[in-house]
Amino acid sequence: MGLIPQSFIDEVLARTDLVNLIDARVPLKKAGKDYVARCPFHQEKTPSFHVSPDKQIYYCFGCHAHGNAIRFLMEYERLSFPEAIGDLAQAAGLPLPADNGKTVASTESHRDLLEQLEAATRLFQQSLRESPQAREYLRRRGLDDATIERFALGYAPARWDFLLQQLGRNQSGRERLLANGLVVARERGDGYYDRFRDRIIFPIWDHRGRIIGFGGRVIDGDKQPKYLNSPETQLYHKSEVLYGFHQAREAIRAEQRVLVVEGYMDVIALHQQDIAFAVATSGTATTNAHLERLFRAAPEIIFCFDGDRAGREAAWRALEGSLEALQEGRLLRFLFLPEGEDPDSLIRHQGRDAFLQRLSQATPALDYLFDRLSEQVDLQQRDGRARLASLAKPYLDKVPTGPMRVLYEQRLRELVGLEPIQIRHKPRPQRPVRRSAPVRLSLVGRSLALLLQHPGHPAWREVDRQRLETLGERGIPLFCRALDIVLETPHITTAMLLSRFEDDPAAAKLASLASRNLAAEFAWKEDDQEKDIAGCVEALNHLARQARFEALKQRAGSKDTPLSPEELQEFLLLMPRRRPSRGS
Predict the structure, then answer these.
(1) Can you give the pTM of this predicted structure?
(2) What pairing do the DSSP bridges indicate for beta strands 278-281 and 258-261?
(3) Is the dihedral of CA 312, 316, 317, 322 positive or negative?
(4) Tens of pLDDT along 431-442?
(5) Which CATH superfamily does the domain covering 6-92 fall into?
């Protein structure tokens, strides 16, 4: 949990609506008391991802992903714990608690860096408004004012100290400029100079809508390098960032597909023509992190490349890196443009409808793979077909076991005319996955489930805690740990209680118990829940008293460990009362 106080974590959870948080990223549907969706953490056809507004927790009955609002942001947005807390606190209007510790200091440092990047963006935008040459360049590229504003485009003047003069007036400002990659240290060690000079500036947002870096394009096409990006920094990681994703998120959700192009101007031109589901990598090849983020957003990815040799080589690299992500329900296609064209030029020359028509004819990854491999062999010859099987095997091995891999293997058999045994090793037979009925709960398991789901019920204060701890029943230590937290924390909720076990080996078990539909499982009527909690408390106390009585009974007749006067009195009180006989 780092150095962030637990009380602050509880306050953040209390002020966060988990349903709204998740629904903004994964569309939810009402189902009884809960909300459901197809799980964002694994591929599935029918919804098994449940969100409880009462408990403020989520649970997937398929892959067992579970947690509260903090855990969801960490897993879905790939945030650290302090980052997730910071985001939720900001949304709730809560300032981070003052603390000299590393965790809070690190978060504050990030905030300072982000604020400087926002300030730099405003300066670049103002510079663009003051530069007729830069504005004319963007007009020649066909961009209108609304698009320029939407993507916060700017201009870095042809000066060595533009940002240094504005944002680096003191040592801390210069250190932040260096940490953000906005300035470069001079080799002589006598100061810094601006990284971006005489370039159109493209602010780069992360998926959370924060500016974390910049790309710069020269106005004079003869200058090199043509594009210059921010270096890797604390905030900017090229392997994770997708340019335009922040602006494209809603369109991607509506279209249920995402178009990956090569350049920033391609993204912007497509968005301006209402093809707003386009994104680009930040000057790097597509990574696993990119793919997972894109497939979380939509089930279909279309890669768009120039039709020249460089474009086709880039497409092949994208295919090689994507095969491991091709699970059931995920589609991957490739669009190759005419040689000499890119999305920016093509959509300006031919228009939106023509581009969308090309998009509909994009080549499925399956066809592209075998078309490319078939170019290297002669399928008319037996040796050529055998060679194709050999070439294809390493690529097929990357595709996860499942329906998608079966399709690839079937296509290969059609091409080479070989039996499956000649293409791959026969897989070990797998048992079908069945969602079994929940295991019947023991008294302790039922009590723990009720405690997790209704931690504020007053009956828990009636538990004979001291004697219960000595009971040798399975699950009692875990129940006692949870009970102690409940008794020590007034107004605790299910989400808050589970957060105490975030890194505990029992976390998954507790989340499962907290998510069980006990009302349906035990066919409760209106007031049966109240009776069941009271009944569990009474039964636990009875077992605890009985166990304590038996322990004292064994010692009562012992000379080595005689009972103390207090223990003797306790033993007599715990002794079962005999019922009077009928004749007496």
Answers:
(1) 0.69
(2) parallel
(3) positive
(4) 444 444 556 788
(5) Zinc finger, CHC2-typedomain (3.90.580.10)
